[in-house]
């Protein structure tokens, strides 16, 4: 199978999945968090090097206080349960998003996960938490403008140089973007980074996105002809 280095997933459909079972939306988020572990392990075994998961968007603050509160507590449950195993497997946890705007306890748990796994060289498991791509690009533009004003940068910036201002500066471009639960939109995710990604939309809700479905997505990816604007000889 053709190698796929960077997979990004919009983990959607937790709420609808729970509702269909007569459960509260939070039960869907808990099942979704457990599935992060399952899919991270499967992705690693399938040769993925970077897995970037959309956990909470800058728009998700619009939800009820109860739901947002639960989503802010989930990282603590999640890393208490799985961090040891992730370390054992060599996973490196990295967070993208504005951590400063998160409740202090949530930000601390995320920072600790990053620090504890900083020397690992296996799968880079990247969690997008309070992440929005337009905001990321705006912050990058402001940081660059500041550097120019302070004489630390000149106007000869190219695309590669601009990428150094993005939250994803340590990752390669996205090869494959998957969105679960049937919606076909990007919802402010990695707009710059998916410029030439392959896109796949699957009907399964995130809690029912199994390693078999991931494998099916990677197989589909391996049949895609990525031309990057060129012409195949
Ligand atoms: C994805 O599932 C998780 C988050 C956005 C936090 P949703 O909560 O969006 O579930 P649906 O789309 O309402 O079913
Ligand atoms: C995108 O899902 C955000 C995450 C998966 C974290 P949403 O459920 O928030 O997106 P919309 O509202 O359907 O576009
Ligand atoms: Mg949704």
Structure description:
The structure is a single chain. The protein has 233 residues and is of the alpha/beta class. The chain has seven helices and six strands. The chain has a six-stranded parallel beta sheet with strand order 3-4-2-1-5-6, sandwiched between helices. Strand 3 (92-96), helix 4 and strand 4 (124-131) form a beta-alpha-beta unit. Helix 1 packs across helix 2 (25-45) and helix 2 (25-45) runs parallel beside helix 3 (65-88). The radius of gyration is 18 Å and the shape is globular. The two termini are 21 Å apart. The model has no long low-confidence stretch (mean pLDDT 98). Bound molecules: 3-methylbut-3-enyl trihydrogen diphosphate (2 copies) and magnesium ion (MG). One 3-methylbut-3-enyl trihydrogen diphosphate binds at residues 11-16, 56, 60, 71, 181.
Query: What's the mean pLDDT score?
Result: 98
Sheet with the most strands? 6 strands, parallel
Structural class: alpha/beta
- Give a count of the beta strands, DSSP E runs of length 2 or more: 6
Main features:
233 residues; alpha/beta; 6-stranded parallel sheet; 7 helices; 6 strands; binds 3-methylbut-3-enyl trihydrogen diphosphate; binds magnesium ion
Brief summary:
The chain is 43% helix and 15% strand. The protein is α/β, with parallel strands linked by helices.
Tell me the layout of helices and strands.
Elements lengths: L5 E5 L3 H7 L4 H21 L4 E8 L7 H24 L3 E5 L7 H13 L7 E8 L1 H17 L9 H5 L12 E4 L18 E4 L9 H13 L10
The structure holds 3-methylbut-3-enyl trihydrogen diphosphate (2 copies) and magnesium ion.
């Amino acid at each position: 199978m053709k190698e796929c280095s960077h997979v990004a997933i919009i983990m959607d459909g937790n709420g609808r999945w729970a509702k269909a079972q007569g459960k509260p939306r939070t039960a869907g988020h808990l099942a979704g968090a457990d599935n992060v572990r399952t899919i991270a392990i499967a992705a690693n075994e399938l040769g993925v090097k970077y897995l970037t998961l959309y956990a909470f968007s800058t728009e998700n603050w619009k939800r009820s206080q109860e739901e947002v509160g639960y989503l802010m507590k989930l990282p603590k449950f999640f890393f208490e349960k799985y961090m040891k195993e992730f370390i054992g497997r060599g996973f490196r946890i990295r967070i993208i998003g504005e951590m400063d705007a998160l409740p202090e306890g949530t930000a601390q748990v995320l920072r600790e996960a990053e620090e504890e796994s900083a020397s690992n060289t296996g799968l880079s498991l990247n969690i997008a938490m309070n992440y929005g791509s337009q905001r990321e690009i705006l912050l990058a533009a402001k940081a660059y403008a500041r550097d120019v004003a302070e004489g630390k940068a000149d106007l000869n910036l190219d695309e590669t140089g601009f990428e150094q201002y993005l939250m994803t500066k340590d990752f390669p471009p996205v090869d494959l973007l998957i969105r679960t639960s049937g919606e076909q939109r990007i919802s402010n995710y990695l707009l710059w980074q998916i410029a030439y990604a392959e896109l796949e939309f699957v009907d399964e809700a995130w809690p029912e996105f199994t390693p078999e479905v991931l494998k099916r997505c990677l197989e589909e990816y391996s049949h895609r002809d990525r031309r990057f604007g060129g012409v195949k000889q």
